[in-house]
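**User:** Hello, beginner here. Are you able to go through the protein record under this note? It all follows right here:
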Amino acid sequence: MDETSRRRHERKESLNIIDYTVLDDNGEPVTRRMGRTLNVSEGGMLLETHIPLKMKQEVLITVALEEDLLDVRGIVVHACVGAEKGFFCSGIQFSKIPDEGLIILKKYIEAIKAEEG
C-alpha cells in the first residue's frame, strides 16, 4: 500500500506562509521560525522549512489561508533527511485543531477544489 492510499484526506497543493514553534518534550517552546506549506489537507500538511524537523516533534503552526489565520498543533510524521536548495520538508499530522479552525480549513480546501475545476 503506497502512502497516498493510506491517507484519510486528499492533499491539495497550496503555498502559504507559516509561523511555527517547535516544542520540547515538556511542551515548552524551543525555537520559532517561518516557512511555508507545500500542500494541505484536513488531517495535515507538508511544510518546507529552513531547518530540519525531527520525527515525533510537536509543533505549533499559524498558517495564513487567504484572509484567515489558522492555528493548529501537529506532530512530525515524516521528516526528510536531506535539504534541497537549503530547504527541508516535513509531513505534519494535526493533533489539535479548534472547531472554528477546521471550518476555515475545509472552506479553504473547497475553494482550491473549485479553482481546479
Observations:
- The chain has one domain: 3-116.
